[in-house]
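Morning!

This is the sequence you dropped in the shared folder:
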Amino acid sequence: MVSFGEQRFWENYQTWKETHQEYNITRDLLRVNWKSDKYREMKYGNGKLTSGMRSTLRNLLVKKEKKPNSRTFKALNWRRLANENGELSEHGRVLALSQLSLKRQCQLLNLPLFEWNVSTLENPENTVQSMLEQQGSQSYFVENTFCLFIDYVMGNALLEVAEKLGKHVYTLDLTYDPEIFFFVKKDLEKYLNSLNENHCIGNFPVCKPFLGTIFTNDTPQQILTLFDKIFRSLGVDRVKKLLRMYFSNPLAYSYRGWPDLFVIEKQNAYCIEVKTTDKLHLNQLVTIPDLVVVAGLSVHVVKLTLRK
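The structure's back. Tokens below.
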């Protein structure tokens, strides 16, 4: 699926190159829909909704309200939160979910929810990691690492395209230069078809110069070891699905809403979102369901409560 921004890029690309010695391609072209707003909750968020609107959103979500108040319904329709038939838009559904309890959110999203009793709520991710290790599982903190992993896996493609365009690369961040991004996306399936289980090792020579800026506390070899474990645990097919998901809406997923932990348990790989509060926040309600449905990766939610 080609977004409006991507279509605009290709329609104007040749003109930009021919008429501007130095042309700047705005990152706004990477936007696909509301998900891509930098501050999603600010544009059509709860702060701009009345209590009646919020109540109607919840009722429409759980099918309790078939005929909302006409004024309320018009207001939701104007905000693109529901259509004429009373069906929630993607944004409306997420806003409705954001008002529910963690338990109800997980039920509606089909996310396994576990409640673990712990002695302290300080450093919750570390606590969960320790408990997993006691059970014989390997776990890694990946909340911000997943996008770095994606950048690394596509590093060879990014550098190949940059060389063809005669552009200098400062970072492996796929969204840093929209021109490079769209050229990579144009041939995405070609790059995906070249993936194999040794891809991370093969990418190491070309990506190594950039790794020092990714993790300041880890050596390039340590980064390679982590990314190689993630890649092999996911398997080539799920990595392909993950990359297609990311390229479908890069600004929606870029470093926002990803689960806290990546877990390797025997032959099984899954993610864990650790919660000490009673809700998944807006970014998580965007990224985590897509990670499950689109990328095919299981995500568990672990709610920590103080042991009495």
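Headline: The radius of gyration is 21 Å.

More detail when I'm at my desk.
O.
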